[in-house]
Amino acid sequence: MVGWRVLEAFLPLGIIAGMLCVMGNAQYFIHKAAHGRPKHIGNDVWDVAMERRDKKLMEMLSSPSTPN
């Protein structure tokens, strides 16, 4: 009898886990369709500002400097 109760518990758990996977994939594909590329995880305003700063610094360092 205990085995049947465990089986009864796993069925709803499997349905819930499956729906979470479906919703996660739906968000991914909707975002990709709307923006043309996947969403960058954890890329907030601060990260974007730091990427711009780093790119600007690298361009300044790589450009040939003219002696005065």
TrEMBL record:
Q: Where in the cell is it found?
A: Mitochondrion inner membrane
InterPro entries to which the protein is assigned, alphabetical: NADH_Ub_cplx-1_asu_su-1
Q: Where are the transmembrane segments?
A: 6-30
UniProt keyword list: Electron transport, Membrane, Mitochondrion, Mitochondrion inner membrane, Respiratory chain, Transmembrane, Transmembrane helix, Transport
- One GO location term (cellular component): mitochondrial inner membrane
Question: Per UniProt, what is the membrane topology?
Answer: Single-pass membrane protein
Q: Name one Pfam family in it.
A: MWFE
The question of whether Glycosyltransferase is a record keyword is answered with: no
Primary role: Accessory subunit of the mitochondrial membrane respiratory chain NADH dehydrogenase (Complex I), that is believed not to be involved in catalysis. Complex I functions in the transfer of electrons from NADH to the respiratory chain. The immediate electron acceptor for the enzyme is believed to be ubiquinone.
By sequence similarity, the record places it as follows:
Belongs to the complex I NDUFA1 subunit family.
Write down what this protein is called: NADH dehydrogenase [ubiquinone] 1 alpha subcomplex subunit 1
Q: Whose protein is this, by species?
A: Coffea canephora (Robusta coffee)
